Amino acid sequence: AERSFTIAIEADPAFAEAWAGRAAARAELGDSPHTLADLDRAIELSPRSTEAYLTRIQTLSLDYETLWSRGGKVHDLHFESLTELPDLRDDPEAKRLEAAIRADVAQVVALGIKPEQARYFDGWLRRAQGDLDGALREFDAALEIWPYFAAGWEGRASLLLIRPQPDLALAARDVERALQLDPGSLRARGLRFYLALRRGEHLPALAELQFLLQLRPRAASLYVLRGYLKQHHLNDRPGARADFEEALRHDPACILALLNLGAAHMEEGRLDEAVETFTEAARRNDRHALVYYFRALTHLMASRRDSALADLGRAVEIDPTFA
C-alpha cells in the first residue's frame, strides 16, 4: 500500500487522498515521523479531511504514550513499573504533543464526528492531564452512547492499570472486551502485554509483542520491550542486544534502547563500549538522570572514581531522588 500511494503521489503531488492513504499505511507500520509529514501535506491540501485529522490524532497520541522510551522520568529499567506511567506534566515534548492533539480534536469535533469518539478524546486528554476521575466519566459516557465502542473499553482498562491501586482483573476484562470488538486494537494489545508482564507471564507477554511487531514493524518502543524481556526474563542476551540495536535503527533518539544496550555492555564487561553508549544517550537527552547514573557505575567498574563522582553529581542535580 505504501508503494502504491507513493506512485500515486508522484503522478499527482496535489492528490490529497494519496497523501492521507500513504500516511495511514505508514501509521500501521509504526513509522511516526513519515506518517506525520504525509498527514501535514494531506491536511494542507484538504483541510476538511476528517480521516486525516483522526489518523494524526492517533499517531500523535501513540507518540505521547511512548514518550517513556525517550523521556527523563523513568528511574529504572524494570518495565513493570511503567504501567503506572511516568510523570510527563513538566515534559516539554509531552506538552507539545498534548497541545497538538487538543487542536486536532477541536478541529474534528467542529467538522463532525461520532459523539462517542468526542467523549473518548476528551477522556484521553483528561487522563493526560492527570484527571483520572474525569477521564473515567468520559470513557463511561462513550460506552453509554455505544457499548460496542472498542476504544472506550480500552480507555477504561488503561485507567484501571494506572490507578494508585491497579485493578488487574477488571482491567483484563475490559481489555478482552475491547479485543472482542476490535482484534487488531494496538492499544488493547499493548495493555494485554502489560497485564502479562505485571503477572510475571513472560511467554504470553512475548507473544503479544510478536503480534504487535507484525502490525508495527517500525515501532522502536516495541523492540525495546522485547529486548527487555529477552535480557531480564528469557536469558537471551544476544537476542536482547539485537532488539535494542533494531530499536535504534528505527529511532536513534530512543534513550531506553541506548540505556539497555549500554547496560548489556556493562554487564558483559565491555566497559568502553558501555561508556560510549551512555555518552551517546546523554548527547540525545542530557536531562535523563539514569544515563549519568549508569555511566557513573561503569566508570566505577573501570576504577575512574573522579568521572564516576561527576556523573553521580549530575544525576542528582537532574533528579534529587537519585541521592
Task: Offer a few descriptive terms.
single chain, 17 helices, globular, 323 residues, mainly alpha, 73% helix
From the N-terminal CA to the C-terminal CA, the straight-line distance is 52 Å
As an assembly, this protein is single chain
Radius of gyration in whole Å, from Cα?
Answer: 21 Å
Task: Bin the helical content.
Answer: over 70%
Total strand count, please? 0
Which shape, going by the Cα principal axes? globular
Number of discrete helical segments? 17
Given the helix and strand composition, which structural class is it? mainly alpha
What is the typical, i.e. mean, pLDDT? Answer: 88
Task: Identify low-pLDDT runs.
Answer: none
Order of helices and strands: HHHHHHHHHHHHHHHHH
Question: How much strand content do the residues show?
Answer: under 5%
The largest sheet is: none
Describe the structure.
This protein has 17 helices and no strands. With 323 residues, the protein is an all-alpha fold.
Question: Strands, helices and their partners?
Answer:
Elements: H1 2-11, H2 16-29, H3 32-45, H4 50-65, H5 92-111, H6 115-128, H7 132-145, H8 150-162, H9 168-181, H10 186-198, H11 202-215, H12 220-232, H13 237-250, H14 255-267, H15 271-284, H16 289-301, H17 305-318
Helix pairs in contact: 1-2, 2-3, 2-4, 3-4, 4-5, 5-6, 6-7, 6-8, 7-8, 8-9, 8-10, 9-10, 10-11, 11-12, 12-13, 12-14, 13-14, 14-15, 14-16, 15-16, 16-17
